[in-house]
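Hey, resending since the last one bounced:
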Amino acid sequence: MASPISFLRRAPGRSAVVLLIAALGLGLYALWLFQHDDIDFGLQQGERIAALDLKRREIRGAIEEVTKRSNEDAATMAAAEERARQAEKIIASLRALESTWDRLVGNPAQQKANAEQLSRMEEIHTTARAKVAEMKQARTRLTWEKDGLELDLGRLEQEIASVENHRSVAWHYLAQAWQRTRGWLLMLFALYLAGEVAVAKRRRSGVRPTEI
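The C-alpha cells again:
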C-alpha cells in the first residue's frame, strides 16, 4: 500500500516543487500583510520590549523585597531562638534552687524574688518560642512567594528573548502569514499527497486515470 512517506521518497522532485509553490505563496501573502499593515512594526516591537523590560524590573524588585523580608525574618527568628535558650538556662538554674530544704530554711524574700524571676523567664520563653514558630511560617510563605516570582521571571525572560530574536520585519510577517494559513496549506498538501498516492496505486494496478 502506498503512503505519503513512500511517495515522497520516490518523487522528491514533484514534492519539492509543491513545497516551493507553497513557500512562494506564503511569501507573497506575508508581503501583502506588510503592505496593508497600518501598525509600525519597529515601533510596536520597541514598545513591546519596553513593556516586557518594565515588567521584568518589577518582578526583580519584588524578588529583592521578598529576599530582604526573608533575611529580616531570619534575623528575628535567630534572636528569638537565642532568647528562648537563655530563658531555658535561667529557668533551669532557678528550679534547681527550689529544693525542699531551701523552701523550709531559705530566705523568704529571696525565694519570692526567685519565683517572680522564674515566672518572667517562663513568659519570655513562651513568647520567644511563639515568635520562632511565627517566623518559620512567615519564611515558608515568603519562600513560596519567591519561587512563584522566579518562575514568572523565567517565563518572562524566555518571552523577551523570543521577541528580541525575532525583530526581523520579514520574519514577523512570515510568521503572521504562517499562523493564518498553516491549516489550509497543510490540508492542501495532504490532499495533494493523497491524490498522488491514489494515482500511483492505479498505475501499479494497470488502470490509467480517467482523462478529463
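The mean pLDDT is 78.

Sorry for the duplicate.
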